[in-house]
Design brief:
By secondary structure, the chain is an alpha/beta fold. It has 26 helices and 22 strands. It is found in: Cell membrane.
């Protein structure tokens, strides 16, 4: 039985690692053939093929439900129902529209839309809106959040921007109830933590600021503010504990068996809480696991813990195979498996504090390989932070908040309890801030596959019971995770990375011993690509300090991420074409007219002596290695290009960054004649509102026989300058079935 369940799970999980889905005829053949193996000794293969076939079939259905290419960029009138809780943003509202219908085209069943300046939408509303639809698309870099995978896992077939709309029917149902509870929470005085209370009670995290999320991630406590398995288990445990206490104190009627009643009541409480939280995939997964644990406690304890875990894993994946695309799936099941390995079958009883400490350090060590392979930051303060935060939230804040929400109709009582819960949350955030400052989050170097295997084996060894032979060897096997070798750059060469940062620009240049960042990515409100893309990718590539941060000019799409880099990474020097327009804390110096060599690679800068505006102030950088060069031009216009030609500067370069994201104001014919590039690099956002790259620019590049590489199509671009080779394109060279 266990072997069959393990094979079924392996087939379902294998979906995550497929570069492409098998064609339909192969899936049909597997569906017919796999049951045949049930009649033979190869029943394990049959279960694997059944899981694999079902996962691929489900994924193909989700891909088929994506927006048709012919509709990409079109504006249509669409009707549908608002599902989930709409998220209020700085400039409008973001929401999901289910059962989308249009008279003019067939649409995906679920859309994710944003409405700038839109009304205060309610969950459950029926809307009629004019939407500019977009096919799913996300940034693609060596490490970082995969937005396209996230959309597919939620079966969202398109995104879009609302241009106009109207309410057709008023909200109702469970979503409407959740929205009314959220609105009631936001109207309370909860010590400024109304948004955090909404996250804990109805699963709406939009009220938490970007700084809050960063702090939670840095301390490994982000799971506490997102309703997950821990919260569902917590509520079930509180109800079960209530029945247990009554039975121990003799308050439970003897004629009724308390264990079945406790298990049923605990599951109903967990299910109710899950429904109030929106019953998304992570919550459904938690409810399934809680149900199986309670059933195991009631009737099947003799079967051990492994079988219920396998059953839960298969039930979750059979219900939603695309869950394997979400990091939360791996982390939640990984954490449960680690705790089972750490506690089940151990001899002797531990005290409460010792048990809590063992739980925290074992989960931290056990999840380390998962975090590294998923490209997520590692919180070294997590054991200490969670030792404080888990009981603080689970035993203190959540019961008080739920009780306060339930008692809101009673004057003063409910609101007072919510104020107390908010006060405790504020105090917790302040404690977490102290811990995060003392023990910063770790962004490790990318670990090679062999280092990950050794580290994973080391983590398993450390989690074995004390006295197990070779257990301490696990500490040595973990070392490759902490001291993974960074990619070596040979003497006389430079590795150039143009990151995919949407409508902005960020370029990392590494020599053997030095690193420079040219532009730091955009920042729009709380959306900081310097923190989300540039910093983690630089760390993953082995960069721990910058010798130079060169910001071409002060526009937010080029310099917006500078503060994030400055606050988290040592920088020896900051320079810019507009130093006076940058934040004073950067202490930026003026660039232009400088030349230096690092490890046999030559760097030269130039700036217009009389710039007409901010774009024309851009500092130009030329990097040459072994006779091959790249020219980075910021946002210069044609007039500035003319001055650059007239200055007699050494311009010929194989690689040219097309100015201003491919705007028609730059990359003129005279400049192309002077530079004579073989390849033009364009950094821009897909579906940007500026029409970049302009058709005239593409026409000029084509007329000069220049190959065009566009980050919106290629993802991050990697050039090994000095080898005279081709660029390595992230989207092309890291093939996955959902892109």
């Amino acid at each position: 039985m266990r072997l069959a369940l393990l094979a079924l799970a392996a087939g379902l999980v294998s979906l995550r690692f497929l570069p492409s889905l098998p064609p339909g005829w192969i899936l049909a053949l597997l569906a017919v053939v796999s049951p045949v193996f049930l009649l033979s000794r190869a029943f394990v293969l049959s279960f694997f093929l059944l899981g694999f076939t079902w996962a691929c079939f489900s994924a193909q259905n989700a891909l088929d439900d994506r927006l048709a290419p012919a509709l990409d960029g079109r504006t249509l009138w669409v009707t549908g129902n608002v599902v989930g809780l709409p998220e209020q943003t700085a400039d409008g509202v973001r929401f999901e529209l289910a059962n989308a219908r249009s008279r003019r085209a067939e649409l995906p069943s679920l859309l994710r839309l944003s409405w700038r300046g839109g009304p205060d939408l309610k969950a459950g509303e029926h809307l009629r809106v004019a939407v500019t639809l977009r096919a799913p698309h996300g940034l693609v870099n060596p490490v970082g959040f995969d937005y396209e995978a996230w959309l597919l896992a939620r079966r969202i077939g398109a995104t879009g921007t609302v241009k106009a709309g109207e309410q057709v029917a008023a909200p109702g149902g469970l979503n409407g109830l959740r929205d009314s509870i959220r609105q009631a929470l936001f109207e309370q005085d909860a010590y400024g933590r109304e948004g955090a209370l909404a996250a804990l009670i109805v699963g709406d995290g939009s009220g938490l600021s970007s700084a809050d999320w960063t702090l939670l991630q840095a301390t490994g406590t982000i799971h506490l503010m997102v309703i997950s398995g821990q919260h569902i288990t917590m509520v079930a445990g509180l109800v079960y504990g209530l029945f247990f206490g009554m039975a121990r104190l003799g308050l439970w009627p003897r004629q009724w068996p308390w264990i079945p009643c406790a298990c049923i009541a605990a599951f109903l409480a967990a299910l109710t809480y899950g429904l109030m939280a929106g019953f998304q995939v992570p919550v459904r997964r938690a409810c399934v696991m809680v149900a199986l644990v309670l059933l195991w406690r009631w009737r099947f304890r003799q079967l051990g813990i492994v079988l219920p875990l396998l059953v839960a894993l298969n039930v979750v994946l059979l219900a939603e195979p695309l869950a394997v695309l979400q990091p939360g799936f791996w982390l939640s099941f990984g954490a449960v498996s680690i705790l089972a390995l750490a506690f089940v079958g151990r001899l002797g009883a531990l005290g409460m504090l010792a048990t809590a400490w063992r739980a925290q350090w074992t989960v931290t060590v056990g999840l380390l390989p998962f975090l590294l392979i998923l490209g997520l930051p590692v919180s070294l303060s997590s054991p200490i932070a969670n030792l404080i935060a888990v009981p603080w939230v689970g035993v203190g804040i959540v019961p008080i908040a739920l009780l306060g929400c339930l008692l809101l109709p009673i004057p003063w009582v409910g609101s007072s309890l919510l104020w107390l819960a908010g006060f405790l949350l504020e105090l917790l955030f302040r404690i977490l801030a102290v811990i995060a400052d003392a023990i910063p989050v770790w962004l490790p170097v990318h670990v090679p596959w062999w280092g990950w295997l050794l580290g994973g084996l080391g983590a398993i060894c450390l989690l074995l019971p004390a006295g197990t032979p070779g257990r301490l060897l696990g500490g040595i096997l973990l070392l490759p995770l902490f001291f993974a070798p960074a990619e070596e750059v040979p003497e006389g060469q430079a590795h150039v990375w143009m990151f995919d940062v949407g409508q902005g620009q960020a370029v990392l240049i590494r020599t053997r011993d030095h690193a420079l960042v040219y532009d730091a990515g955009p920042r729009f409100g709380d959306f900081d690509l310097g923190a989300r893309v540039v910093l983690p990718n630089a760390r993953a590539l082995g960069v721990h300090r910058l010798d130079e941060l060169l910001l071409s000019h002060a526009d937010a799409d080029h310099a917006g991420g500078a503060l994030a880099l400055h606050s988290t990474m040592p920088i020896l020097r900051v320079s810019s074409g507009e130093p006076e327009a940058l934040p004073a804390v950067l202490n930026a110096q003026s660039c232009g007219g400088e030349s230096w060599r690092w490890n046999g690679v030559t760097f030269t800068t130039w700036r217009s002596p009389a710039p007409s505006d901010s774009n024309a102030s851009s500092c130009v950088l030329r990097v040459e290695a072994n006779g091959e060069s790249v020219l980075l031009t910021g946002d210069v216009d044609m007039a500035t290009e003319k001055r650059l030609i007239e200055s007699g500067w050494n311009l010929p370069s194989r690689w040219l960054q097309a100015a201003h994201h491919g705007s028609k104001t730059g990359t003129g014919d005279p400049f192309l004649d002077a530079v004579a590039p073989a390849v033009a690099l364009i950094s821009r956002g897909k579906h940007n509102g500026y029409g970049h790259p302009h058709p005239d620019v593409i026409g000029r590049l084509n007329a000069h026989g220049v190959e065009v590489l566009d980050t919106a199509a290629t993802g991050a671009i990697h050039i090994q300058l000095g080898t005279h080779g081709k660029a390595i394109l992230t989207r092309r060279d890291h093939v996955v079935f959902w892109r």
